[in-house]
Amino acid sequence: MKKNIILLAIITLQFSSCKQQKLDYKYSDKEELVECSSGDMELIKEAVYEFENYISEHYTFLGNSTAEGYYNYLELLVDNRPPAVEFFSDHLKEIVTVLKNEKNLYTINGSKTRLNYDHELVNCILENIKDEQVKTTLNAMIPSKTISAVVLAPTLFSKKLTMAKDDRALATYVALDMFYTKLIHMSLPDYEEEPYKNGLIYDIDTINSKRLDLKSLKKKRVNN
Fold this sequence. Notes:
- The longest helix is centred in the C-terminal third of the chain and has 19 residues, at about 170-185.
- Helices cover about 50% and strands about 5% of the residues.
- A two-stranded antiparallel sheet has the order 1-2. A two-stranded antiparallel ribbon has the order 3-4.
- It has helices at about 1-15, 40-60, 65-75, 90-100, 120-125, 130-140, 150-155, 160-165, 170-185, and strands at about 105-110, 110-115, 200-205, 220.
- The chain has one domain (about 1-20, about 35-220).
- A hairpin with a 2-residue loop joins strand 1 (about 105-110) and strand 2.
């Protein structure tokens, strides 16, 4: 826990140092994700591809598969586990800073950071999701403000191949709401890590400094 606190403090300082930097777009030649006229789609595209690079490198152990990365990342969300800060690249942190400053895309209210579902760009992304099951679930949860990564992640397990290849609007939504919402919240000065679901904590054995080996995750009961 002490190690996590130190890491989070370092990450907060590093996020703060990125405020005046101009974003370098690395994925401009990549395939477009979704057609939306509102919002900075170049920024959204950069954010999604950087997220997929992150999970492909650090949330896989069978190879650099984006689909496997989606599955393993979502699986850890079920336990309300935050993204592994040890593997945040400078470019990722710069994207978080720019997204946080994007007008009205996210709402920050005290201890809550949320994707703004009233934003025209977010509405466009949701409308372009191809998977009707996910779209129906989202449409039911958004008005009641009951949507959460912990609740929605199990529904998305079977969609890993779809997100990685075909339903790129769904991939965009997952990146913005289930990844960058967390990172923006973690960048706040008063951020405190929430307890994991089911009273479990995880020790990460980072033998390979470039990849999070999910086989090395060891569960230990929290002492009450």
